[in-house]
Amino acid sequence: MRQHAAQGGSYGAPGRAMGVGRATAQSRRDTLLKPEKVPSVMEQRATGSS
Questions:
Q1: Is 48 buried (19+), middle (13-18) or exposed (0-12) by CB count in 10 A?
Q2: Residue 28 belongs to what domain range?
Q3: Whole-prediction pTM value?
């Protein structure tokens, strides 16, 4: 989701992938990308960005 946002992706594609509407996808992405929300250890491992 972070990479998708960084590459200028829309809200629609993640919404379809998660099986939710665009507004729900937008809310989830915005929550994830809040400045105080740092990637978890597992996310860092998965993306190779330790």
A1: exposed
A2: 2-47
A3: 0.66
The 10s digit of each residue's pLDDT in 9-26 is 999 999 999 999 999 999
Give how many domains the chain has, as a whole number. 1
Q: Give the whole-angstrom CA distance, residue 25 versus residue 45.
A: 24
DSSP-based three-state secondary structure for 18: helix
Annotate 2-31 with b (16+ C-beta within 10 A) or e (fewer): eeeeeeeeebeebbeeeeeeeeebbebbee
Q: How far apart are CA 46 and CA 15, in angstroms?
A: 21
